[in-house]
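ingest -> validate -> predict -> emit
validate: passed (alphabet ok, no gaps, 509 aa)
predict: started
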Amino acid sequence: MTDASLPSLIEQMMQPGFYPHPVKEPIELIQTHVSYVLLTGDYAYKLKKPVNFGFLDFSTLDLRQHFCHEELRLNQRGAAELYLEVLPITKTGDGYELNGSGEPAEYTLKMRQFPQEALLIDMFEQGKLTGTQMEELGRVVAKYHAKSETNDYIRTFGEIAQIRAAIDENYEQTSKYIGGPQTQSQYEETKQFTDNFFGDREELFASRRENNYIRECHGDLHLRNICLWQDRILLFDCIEFNEPFRFVDVMYDVAFAVMDLEARGRKDLGNAFLNTYVEQTGDWEGLQLLPLYLSRQAYVRAKVTSFLLDDPSIPQADKDAALNAAAGYYKLAWEYTKPKTGRLILMSGLSGSGKTTVARHLARQSGAIHLRSDAVRKHLGGVPLEQKGGADLYTTGMTQKTYGRLLELGVKLAQQGFTAILDAKYERQELRQAAIAEAKTHNVPLQICHCTAPEAVLRDRLNRRTGDIADATADLLASQQAASETFTDDEQAYVTTVDTTQDFSSLEV
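emit:
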């Protein structure tokens, strides 16, 4: 039985005899609003639909050929082992031939097929996606961005007019869905937020251009475009069809992955990815852009899902599901625009007292930004995170610089509505008083989480510590204890003490 809604080429590609290699039957067809993907067993074949959405134009054969080659080229960066070659499909009588010698009638991108359960979306739906894997994703994306190209031309896409054009286009293309998957008030308030954001933050956008954060990024970094294959996280199916979607701020990519996890109800996994990424890159200032891009990415998922409602080849049951999904994304895009109250949490305690473990727990629970003094110090000193710092990294002057930078970042993020956890010893009254004074000056709520454990436990933890960016060793404990100053009566009002040898899973601050 054939499907009358499918092109004859796709019907033929559903037949095993079309391919010059063995296939796994039945051949599976996956459709999006812009492509067909046929899964044959060892290989997948992707074809672009002859559509023109304005932001994407595959309407001619020449354009489809060009963008097949672009997709092959660009995805070498994140998943070279998956992307093999572009092949012509030729017309032969009443049928078609893969890689034939005649005049091409279509083009297909041949890829190595991996098990669908290797997709992060499948792992998520099976409950197998872990915080540790999300931390690894943060490291992978940080390296991907570090190697991504930037130049004078790419940086022009960081101009407000360029960014705004793409976002405003989303609003123009979705106004017809008001009264369907989204409401009039959501539409107007989300648009007002972006209008205000661009108007109020010209200096921020300028600094992103000047500091080379506008790069040739992935552009579509969500769970369906990431897989864990042969023990490696691969980033595939990047944006090949639209430069303004690919020449973007790195935080644009980061926001897509965070939004995707949050939309699925796992803010903790999004937090694990986000905090690892910014720790690896040191790009904590970039978080000021996160609300804009979280809203934008939710909105673009709403838009793309809405387009399915207009596709005659999509079954009605799938359209009903798309309507509900789009409504959820429109609502999420709107929710990201709502103002939030930021705050500061100071961690305090000796090395090995469990500060980072507790801070990580609190961050996952509350969506906080976890700023580790070890990472801040090494970024200031130009030392790779995984490398042990020398004596010059731990001078009194560098320590003062580290705490100053830590507090500067914390206040800046708290003023933007983030909870910022400053993970450092904060053993001296001078350091704590400076943080309290800054919080009062900027009207930012502050708490202190003081972690404790018996000395024998501290020594044991430090002696067993491996694979962490912290350099502290057990032989430093005596000097740390000597330098520690008790909390004043005024400070005690802010303090929650946590014995980290006990269960703190229900801890809230």
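Residues 10 and 35 are 11 Å apart (CA to CA).
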